[in-house]
Design a protein that fits this description.
The complex is a heterodimer. By secondary structure, chain A is mainly α. Chain A has one domain (3-483). Chain A contains 20 helices and two strands. Chain A has a two-stranded antiparallel ribbon with strand order 1-2. In chain A, strand 1 and strand 2 (70-72) form a beta hairpin. Chain A is globular and about 70 Å long. By secondary structure, chain B is mainly α. Chain B is 78% helix and 0% strand. In chain B, helix 1 packs antiparallel against helix 2 (28-53) and helix 2 (28-53) packs antiparallel against helix 3 (57-87). Classes of the chains: A mainly alpha, B mainly alpha. Chain A binds chain B through residues 128-129, 132-133, 136, 140, 143-144, 147, 150-151, 153-154, 156-160, 163-164, 167-168, 170-172, 174-175, 177-179, 181-182, 185-188, 231-232, 235-236, 294, 296, 299, and chain B through 8, 15, 18-19, 22, 28, 31, 35, 38-39, 41-42, 45-46, 48-50, 52-53, 55, 57-58, 60-61, 64-65, 68, 71-72, 75-76, 78-79, 82-83, 86-87, 92, 95-100.
Chain lengths: 486, 100
């Protein structure tokens, strides 16, 4: 194995070393060293981003490294940079939060870094072995992160549920992988595609394998009916972790979803499309309806992020190149709007978990007009209202579904976006329209420059994509230059 | 004569038992054991297919699955210890505060 093929792998090697250094440093410094450790973690992630830009980009055509395990293509670079951005924003949200709640230790940052490493492998894996290992590295780190506040009952409970259902979904995914391997004799995505193109087949074992893999992946993106873990995991987890696991693993899981389904299994699209169609429709309907009755903002945003996975699945159902880049675009916008919204929940939170109920937002526009305006923009984006990025990204997935002839799916999507306005605007009503005593009862904002910066960045990115989407669309379309994708 | 079909049938039984165990049993330790059953059903499947196809990649994946399952069990046991310290129970239904 020539040494040159490790060169594109340098970012991952650096990330692994950095996470070990942070782990050891965290043991040495303990809670006193939160700020230096956080700076170290952010610094390592920025350096990783630069290394991805320097070494991880394809020179021209996509290439494979490490014996066909990983692909170096623009698709991988897109998701790697997206995951890095969400990891950096999460750490900036988490540092002040962990200090305020007196949860310390460098293992938090080390776990974020290992999860990021897992997602790097998920974004670039082109072999079911590497994809599985990346998925598990991400999942195992997330289980621990959700249960990070081990003295809070809710955090523990969320972690237990996340763990049991996550491990079960990995088992289902693996069983599907074993059946696909048994009928095609290979774990390499390119070889799977070649075999399916050469001899399209519909034997029962292969079909069962593909459907079980679809179930496993739908679990990971929290699509209905495989979503039961996510509201509890999102509500129980420390809020910065909720922000992280609601965006980055979802983006990485969509990358893996696209590589496997829009890539390797694309010759069999007529067989798996109806499964994803049904899941997308149910996810949009159930996620939005269930969010209507939630009084806990974290739980409401959890159901809203289930619904958003449903919108993004529309692009997968379309199965066209347009559908694929619309998913990339959706994940880009979704990452920033969700992290920003959770960032404001973090800012509103004080010991005893105030700031989590809708009532805590009462009168925020008087106490902190800037924060209220930021939340307004992020909620408009989540609801998909112009001129925010949320509108543009929804427009592209709806257009993808309509172009591919799935008009009913788009109709469901539009109707459910209208439903979603109701629960997003419950917060807006509390912030702007509640007067008098009730407005006084709302929670106070915490001073936290880093978290404020995260919210500011998210709002700016969401607005920038909404006002001037061309470069972002170009970037997402560039991500189509991927190995094995159509 | 034991053929690949026998292994696959056994693995299907193990997988089904594991799935039922995870969904029906309320004891966290039994759930962990059921998860392990699912992973071993997968391993059996992979190795049987690998043997029949004369291709090694299935066995390589099986080794990775064993490794990851060990890490997964470690985290599961860690969660059990945290749960026992907080609530003095290993029954999953007792850890159900958030259900709305």
């Amino acid at each position: 194995m020539p040494l040159e093929q490790f060169v594109p792998f340098i970012p991952e090697i650096f990330l692994a070393i950095a996470s070990f250094v942070l782990l050891v440093g965290g043991i040495g410094l303990g809670r006193r060293g939160m700020r230096p450790l956080a700076l170290g973690a952010v610094g390592s992630l920025v350096v990783t981003g630069i290394l991805v830009w320097l070494f991880g980009r394809p020179a021209g055509e996509p290439e494979v490294i490490l014996g066909g395990m990983l692909a170096i293509d623009t698709f991988a670079v897109f998701f790697k940079l997206l995951v890095l951005a969400s990891a950096i924003l999460t750490i900036m949200l988490a540092t002040g939060f962990l200090e305020r709640f007196r949860y310390g230790g460098g293992e938090f940052f080390a776990l974020i870094l290992t999860a990021t490493l897992g997602m790097f492998v998920m974004a670039s894996g082109v072999n079911l072995v590497s994809l599985y290992v990346g998925l598990e590295l991400m999942a195992l780190s997330s289980y621990v992160l959700v249960g990070y506040c081990k003295l809070e009952v809710k955090s523990n409970e969320g972690a237990v549920k996340y763990f049991v259902l996550g491990a079960m979904s990995s088992g289902i995914l693996l069983y599907g992988i074993s059946l696909v391997y048994g009928s095609l004799g290979t774990l390499d995505l390119m070889e799977i595609k070649t075999a399916l193109v050469a001899a399209p087949q519909d034997n029962l074992v292969l079909m069962l394998g593909i459907v079980l893999m679809a179930f496993g992946m739908l679990f990971k993106v929290a699509a209905v009916p495989f979503h039961v873990w996510s509201p509890d995991a999102y509500e129980g987890a420390p809020t910065p972790v909720t922000a992280f696991i609601s965006v980055a693993p979802k983006a990485a899981a969509f990358a893996m979803f696209l590589r496997i389904f829009a890539g390797a299994f694309s010759p069999e699209i007529d067989h798996w499309r109806s499964v994803i169609w049904l899941a997308a429709a149910m996810t949009m309907i159930f996620g939005n309806i269930a969010a209507l009755s939630q009084d806990n903002v974290k739980r409401m945003l959890a159901y809203s992020s289930i619904a958003h996975a449903g919108y993004a699945l529309m692009g997968v159902v379309a199965g066209t190149a347009y559908g694929t880049w619309s998913v990339l675009m959706y994940m880009l916008v979704y990452t920033f709007m969700n992290i920003g919204a959770f960032g404001l929940v973090v800012l509103l939170e004080t010991r005893g978990y105030a700031g989590e109920t809708v009532k805590d937002w009462a009168g925020l526009s008087k106490k902190a007009p800037a924060a209220a305006a930021g939340m307004l923009i992020l909620l408009l984006a989540l609801a998909g209202i112009p001129p925010t990025g949320g509108f543009m990204s929804k427009l592209y997935v709806f257009a993808a579904a309509i172009n591919a002839g799935y008009i009913w799916l788009a109709v469901i999507g539009v109707l459910m976006s209208a439903v979603s306005l109701y629960y997003y605007f419950r917060i807006v009503v509390q912030m702007y329209l509640v007067e008098g005593e009730e407005a006084e009862s709302g929670a106070e904002l915490v001073r936290d420059r880093w978290a404020e910066g995260v919210v500011l960045v998210s709002v700016l990115v969401v607005m920038a994509i909404g006002v001037y989407p061309a470069p972002f669309v170009g970037w997402a379309q560039g991500g189509l230059n991927a190995l094995g994708l159509m | 004569m034991i053929t690949a079909t026998h292994y696959l049938a056994l693995s299907l039984v193990m997988f089904t038992l594991g799935l039922i165990g995870v969904m029906v049993r309320r004891n966290f330790i039994t759930v962990l054991m059921s998860l392990e059953l699912i992973f071993n059903a997968v391993n059996l499947n992979l190795i049987a297919f690998s043997f029949r196809l004369g291709d090694l990649s299935g066995q390589i994946l099986a080794i990775f699955v064993i490794t990851v399952a060990a890490a997964e069990a470690a985290i599961g046991l860690g969660l059990i210890i945290a749960l026992t310290r907080l609530k003095d129970t290993v029954i999953l239904d007792d850890a159900n505060e958030m259900r709305s």
